[in-house]
Amino acid sequence: MAIEPGFSFSVAEFSAALLAEREILPRARITAGYVAQLVDGAAVLVFAVEDEPEPAWSLKATVGEVAVDQTVIPFDTGTLGEVAANRTVLQFSARELSREDYAHLDVRQTVTSLSYVPIAVEERLLGCIEIVSFGEAVTEATLETIAEMAEYAAIGFASAMGYELERHASLSSVMRLTQLYDIEKVFNSTLEMARLLPVICSKVQDLTRAAAVNLWMVDKDDLLLVQQAGEDRSVHVGDHQGAGDGIAGRVAESGEPVVLQADDPVVLERNARHGSEIASVMAAPLLDGESLVGVLEVVGQEENRIFDEDELFTLTEVAGSAAQALHNSSLLQAERKIEVLQTLVRVSQEITSTLNQERVLQAIVNQPQLVIPYERAAIALEQRQRLTIRAVSGVAQLNDSDPNVARLQTLLRWASGLDQDVYVTQHEDEISDPRPETREKFRRYFEESGSRGLYAVPLADEEGRLGMLSFESSDPDFLNDLHFEIIKVLTSQATLALRNASLYKEVPFIGVLEPLIEKKRRFMAADKRRRGLILGASAAALLFLILVPIPMRIAGDAQVAASQTQYVRANADGVVQQVLVREGDQVSPGTILAEMEDWGERSTLAGAQAKYKIAIAEMNRALVNNDATLAGRRQLEANYLSGESDRALEQLSRRTLRSDITGTVVTPHLENVVGKKLEAGDAVMEVVNTGEVTVDLAIAERDVVLLKTGAPANIKLEGFPTQIFHGTVGIISPASGVAADHRVFFARVRLANPDGKIKTGMQGYGKIYAGLHPAGYVLFRDVALWVWSKAWNWFGW
Questions:
Q1: pLDDT at residue 518 in the model
Q2: 160-174, 259-273, 369-383, 666-680: lowest mean pLDDT where?
Q3: 61 and which of 46, 194, 482, 735 could share a cystine (Cβ 3.0–4.6 Å)?
């Protein structure tokens, strides 16, 4: 086959064409195009050698009537395998080959010969040029020219591979930073410790593609394995490790991250002891400041999954985010403990606030549910030497014939004979009690009741036993150490309250009946006409009280609650450049309060925008030149730089501090803040919401049932004795409080305060509209309720 007439190979032209491109794919196309001009009617294919994970031929360019069934071909297959073995120019006649030798080709014409020119630099094979001839074979002179082209192409392939490798490393770094950012957001998306621990392990396993991830937490002087993702037979949740013992113990003692391979003595010992197959392991400490929180251990069990220093660096960064998330979660747990203690105080006050035995019983079984996660509580009292259930949580009227009540009563009578706490749980088919007869008793009870855990505690004092208190749940682990401590306190309070209620003596009411008998005697002694007038007037008054509706208003003491406050904080480290407001200024949402120095952010934004414009201009120039490859690359750069500009603009906007609410600036001497260096999160000023205030109206316990949200309310404050403020009820507190030795509920009344004259802490009096009711109900409701309560206490029907 001769060189095409009128065409000659130019080294300078070929090299310039290669240098115009940076990637291997366009350089392969240029090479295939130049080779195709040297041969007549033949097809040209250009392959590159892919090294990861094993060498293989990868098709990069094709010219002519030929196709390849697969883009990646095994390295030592067919004629391409001969090139890989010899690495010299080869030419085969089709008659000498079987079809399987070039099975990678899909051709519609008869192949006469196959020619191969390797693309190599020194000892490194980078690819090859395959020429499929359908007529005359390629001449030796042409092959020599193509071999010369391959030398220049090899240099282009090597530089292109280096460029793509560097670009891939950069993209990997960006992707890793993105993953770290996403993981940090996921870690900070929850403050629940029970949900956070599995999230940490699963996300680290996904990031590192590890077989297992173990999360060890500091437990006194040891490390406790609290969570595990994946499968690691060498350790299990609940295991302990001392300082210096094992991999996690060594990291905890030194405070330094480590990466170990299968030949390390510690890994060998761990594999031998537990029969595991750990191929690589890395561990990083979880540090809260300088305090050790735990250790994050990542285990690889496949031979081709060997961790390196880069992955250890990534794990260390993730460990920092995990430690911060665990710190935030621990703060939430501490706050909840405080809330539990405050709730416990309120529950104790509720139990001991009355001498009415029925109210005490209902408070004992219902109120503890605020701090103890039980599903049913019951209290049984000693009556004539026999234990009888008197109250069950969630049940206002107890039905003695209810089989659930009878079943529990039988069990509590048995438990009372033990004269000690009884705590029995069922996990699947296992009953926790050691005695067989007790296990059988509770197995039947759990099957019939649906419960899986029961805790019963006797109520007794120095005067004797009063009864039994029990808690049940379908969750066998519904009680922890804190709950047991709470129950001990509640048991003492309940015993005291029940003893006081049982000693309460009713006051005789004979003094009330004697005046009524005297009035009846005088009425019967009056003349008939006078008695008729009295009866008629009484009937008219009665009809008025029953039939005529009048407005009813619920009154109570009022106090202006604390206003909403916004602490304006610095969004990032920096120096305050100017403050635009002063103490007492009125602001609205979006008002600019202060600005921080932003020359760095503006410079970054200007640079990003300039690079973006240059990329757009280069893209347009490439489109004009009909260079789609360059235009696509510049478009990708422009998209990336557009994102950089948006991020720079967002960072610039964070240097401006704005108000989120309508209110008044209350921080004095703001001019002294100018020039002050702040760290992210430092408070700059305080803005108090004055556009609307909330007034807490204390409503007596007996009147709270008449209130509804949205009801109109009138407030009169002592600071404005001649003015009445109108508002509506926004919230009715679900829990009661104590005010002036009386139990009250608070109605939150919202008042408009456009001029800000209503101040926090102002006191007064308020009334809430409760609708239209019969006059008798409005006028004599309090008296009727008092009489009813006394009569019920005396007779107890």
A1: 63
A2: 160-174
A3: 46
Looking at residue 425, what is its pLDDT? 92
User: Residue 427: which H helix or E strand, with range?
Assistant: strand 422-427
**Which amino acid is present at 118?**
P
Percent of the chain with pLDDT over 90: 6
Is the pTM here over 0.70, yes or no? no
Residue 227 tokens read as 């969570």
List C-alpha distances in Å: 311 to 172, 204, 587, 788.
12, 11, 50, 76
pLDDT per residue as tens digits for the range 583-623: 878 788 888 888 888 777 777 878 878 888 888 888 888 88
Alpha carbons 774 and 550: distance in angstroms, whole number? 6
> Tokens 């006797």 sit at which residue?
458
Phi-psi sector, 572: left (phi>0), alpha (psi -120 to 50), beta: beta
Strand-pair partners of 424: 454
Q: Which two tokens stand for residue 198?
A: 């599995």
Which CATH code fits 11-167? Answer: 3.30.450.40
pLDDT band at 510 (very low <50, low <70, confident <90, very high): very low
CA distances to 254, 281, 314 from 264, in Å: 18, 10, 22
From residue 648, alpha-carbon distances to 162, 184, 604, 609, 707 in Å are 31, 21, 6, 9, 53
* pLDDT, average across residues 643-668: 81
The beta-strand segments (E) located in 515-564 are 549-560
DSSP letter string, 26-67:
HHHHHHHHHHHHHSSS-EEEEEEEE-SSS-EEEEEEEESS-E
Same CATH fold assignment for domains 11-167 and 188-335: yes
* Distance from C-alpha of 754 to C-alpha of 361, rounded to nearest angstrom: 49
Q: In 3-state terms, what secondary structure has residue 738? A: strand
d(C-alpha 705, C-alpha 552), whole Å: 13
Provide the pLDDT confidence category of residue 162 given band limits of 50, 70 and 90: confident
Contact 68, 47 (CB under 8 A): no
pLDDT at 118 over 90: yes
Which of 481, 501, 457 lies closest to 362, judged by CA?
A: 501
Burial of 106 (0-12, 13-18, 19+ CB in 10 A): exposed
In the chain, where are the structural domains located? 11-167, 188-335, 353-503, 565-685, 690-795
Would you state the structure tokens that stand for residue 568, as one six-digit string? 């304006």
Q: Residues 6 or more apart from 112 whose CB is under 8 A from it?
A: 93, 94, 133, 134, 135, 136, 137
Pick the CATH number of 690-795 from 2.40.30.170, 3.40.50.2000, 3.40.50.300, 3.40.190.170: 2.40.30.170
Residues 68, 45: contact at Cβ < 8 Å?
yes
Whose tokens are 């020429």? That residue is: 131
Q: How confident is the model at residue 515 (pLDDT cuts 50, 70, 90)?
A: low
Structure tokens at 561: 């609650």
CA distance 506 to 316: 72
Q: Judge contact between 257 and 285, C-beta under 8 A.
A: yes
Rounded to whole angstroms, what are the CA distances from 447 to 35, 374, 403?
A: 84, 18, 14
Class (C level, CATH) for 188-335: alpha beta
pLDDT digits (tens, 9 = 90+) for 200-217: 888 788 877 888 888 888
What's the CA gap between 663 and 666, in Å, rounded?
9
Give the Cα separation of 344 and 339 in Å (integer): 8
Sign of CA dihedral 249, 250, 254, 255: negative
* 3-state DSSP assignment of residue 227: strand
Residues 6 or more apart whose CB falls under 8 angstroms from that of 584 comprise: 664, 665, 666
6 has a pLDDT exceeding 70: no
Residue carrying the six token digits 């009063």: 466
Angle formed at CA 446 by CA 226 and CA 484, multiple of 5 degrees: 50
Look up the CATH architecture of domain 353-503.
2-Layer Sandwich (3.30)
